[in-house]
Amino acid sequence: MRIIAFVLGKRWATPVYSYEMIKGLSKYCDIKVILEKEVDNISQWRQLPIERLEVTTYKNHDLLSGICSFLKIITFLKIRQFINHFNPDIIYYPVLHPWKIVLDCWIPSQIPEIMTIHDPILHEGENSFLFKFFHWAALRKPKFFVLLNNTQKNYFINKHKLIDDTVCVLPLGVFSSYKESIKKLDDLSEFKDIFQLQGKYFLFIGRLLKYKGLSTLLKASKILLKNNLLMPLVIAGAGRLSEEEQDLLSFISISGKVYFYNHYLDDSSIATLVKNAYMTILPYDSATQSGIIPLSFAFGTPALASNVAGLKEQVKNNETGYIFTAKDEENLAHKMLHVWNLESCFYQNMRKQCLVYANKNWGWDSIAKDFNSFLNDKINLKFNDKPKKGALEMKAISQFSIENYAFEKLTLKQKLIIFMRKLLGTQTILNAQLFRGIIEDSAWLKYKSFAPGGMALDNAALYTLYRIMNDTKPKNILEFGLGQSSIIIHQYAAFFNAKALTIEHDNDWINFFTSSINNVDLNIKQHELEIINFMGFETLAYKNINEIKNGQYDFICVDGPFGSKRYSRSQIIDMADSLSEQFCIFIDDSQRKGEKETLNELIKILKHKMQAELYCRNYIGEKNQHTLVCSKHLKFLTCLR
């Protein structure tokens, strides 16, 4: 299996996690890396025997610098050339990065993507409109996902309307760089104040972010101090304290038992502080998981963590640490006092349990092996049998997703146009608002849950489709390709007692879609795919299309089968004799060469057959272009916006 991995984050745990996972995967896969050259652990990457392309994303972590970096056309061309030369089977993002929404415009769309989602539920401070939009845009293209805990798996699947088998849960492992950089506490002069406290202090370590609940810890410490029970506490990490946290820290610092190191910590400092702690404290208000817990256990240091999401999966209560109620300072104070007074034999046994658990569950070799199994077994892509690039054979149809090699590649000009639209982001927002606004009070569209984008119609296409249904009231509808459009079409048909038929080739997709859309009655007919010769070119078509040519359709929606390089979706031409006097034809992906050829031939035949005026309009969406071909009486459909 050939994998291209993007590692574009510079600091903190981002490049470390990516390094560990990719190093492990390299034992099972042929993998290459596109790497930020200013990454903190660059020396590790350069020692790894993996081919890489080093790039520079942006210098400063501000909005302007980030947006300007999107204009590095030469860099994106190099990336695309690197990818095309390798011809990977899959693109892997170990960590989400702002560049992804731009990279989606440059990477060939037929290559499937897999992404690790570190935070299925965004933390406080990361839920602004801009951040939410970026998160949504970045998650549109990947077909497969890795999560770090089971607690949030069902939420993530339901929110993004995914199939269970497309999501893999892999725990966060122990970062080897920390273990390798361990030093004696006495050797780190900056921590001279706590030399005498080896093994006798609680430790809060990491960036001082709001969701990490430092205020809860400080309030708990204040309770203990008032009762003359406060034990030594070390707080270490970069970031700013809130006014409330500053006041609390000032109050408990009077005791002389609080040590505050407010700066960036290197691997050696982190590892040394964790190893010498009595127990690490994670008072998080919310969390997916934490790398501090595996690191603690790897050194035999138990953890005291709040009962949020993945933390309660990582810590086994009363075995490798303790769990307390999130945002409850009194409960935390009680737990701190309890664990501080544990019997020595019980505490030492807990330390041993931590070591055993870390070695058994959080080794990167086993995590990478499970990941590789997921790629091979769950995704079920038989890469070894993949046909040569450009091939179009029946054998390939039966074994692979046809999209992998039959889609028409976008031209550079088209890539740049899409890139600019995504860079500005305004068109996507406006189209989404337009579509949501028009369906909000719809009497007949009861089920309003849609997942536009990716392989599905975008918001602009869904808006056009709804207007056709609502404004023209078709009586006999034919749809090629089951998807988001089917939700609109079949609800309309049920409400207005119209006829609607959807043709789809993939039985697995039919079963999944019908089971996930419980509130809509769908009339679907399966027709297998075949390769036919049309106008001297090979193209994909549905078998036995003559079975449905006896109706007089006043609306036909064409979004299937998968695109072909020449005369794509040509079955619509065969349906020219099955149109009513007043009709509308909707064709998606009409910016592609194959669809353009089909449209030109269709219009030529319809003009000859009907001897009447035809009206056509291309509508540009945030993802693709779609085209309407209408009879004269329905020409208003070419002026929808």
- The outline comes out as elongated
Q: What is the rounded Rg?
A: 29 Å
Proportion of residues in extended strands: 15-25%
Numbering strands along the chain, what is their spatial order in the largest sheet?
Answer: 3-2-1-4-5-6-7
Question: What would you call the quaternary organization?
Answer: single chain
* Distance from first to last alpha carbon: 46 Å
Report the average pLDDT across residues: 81
Largest sheet: 7 strands, parallel
pLDDT below 50 for ≥5 consecutive residues: which ranges? Answer: 380-410
Count of separate DSSP helical elements? 25
* Count of strand segments: 22
Helix/strand/pairing class, anyone?
alpha/beta
| Residues in helix, % | 25-40%
Description of the molecule:
- With 641 residues, the protein is of the alpha/beta class.
- The protein has 25 helices and 22 strands.
- The chain has a 7-stranded parallel sheet with strand order 3-2-1-4-5-6-7, sandwiched between helices.
- Strand 5, helix 6 (129-138) and strand 6 form a beta-alpha-beta unit.
- Helix 1 (13-25) packs across helix 16 (364-378), helix 5 (100-106) runs antiparallel to helix 19 (412-424) and helix 9 (214-226) runs parallel beside helix 10 (243-253).
- It is elongated, with a radius of gyration of 29 Å.
- The two termini are 46 Å apart.
